[in-house]
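Deliverable D5.2: sample structural annotation.
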Amino acid sequence: MSLAGKTAIVTGAGSGINLAFARLLLRNQCNVLFADLALRSEAQEVVSAHSSPSRSPARALFQETNVREWPQLERMFHTVSKEFGGADIVCPGAGVYEP
C-alpha cells in the first residue's frame, strides 16, 4: 500500500515514538499534521524541513493541540481539512497523564 499523497494526523508527534512514526510517514511521501502541546527541537527540524511543497514531496505542519480539549481537536481536524483536504490516517499517540 502506498502512502504517497495521503495525509496523516499524529498526536504526540512532538517527541518520542510518535515523532519516529511521523518521520516514517514523511519518508513515504505522506503529509503529516504534527498535533502536540509543543515540539522538541528535533521535531521542529523535521517540520521545518517539510514545510514547503517545493522542499519535499510530503508536507509537515504543526498544530498546537491539547487532546483533552474538544475545541482544540475540532480545530486540528479543521486545519487538516483546510491544508490537505482531510485526513486519511489518524494516529492517536498522545499520552495523557492525570495523577
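Annotation notes: The first strand starts at residue 7 and ends at 11. Strands lie at 7-11, 31-36, 60-64, 89-92.
The annotation will be released with the project's public dataset once the embargo ends.
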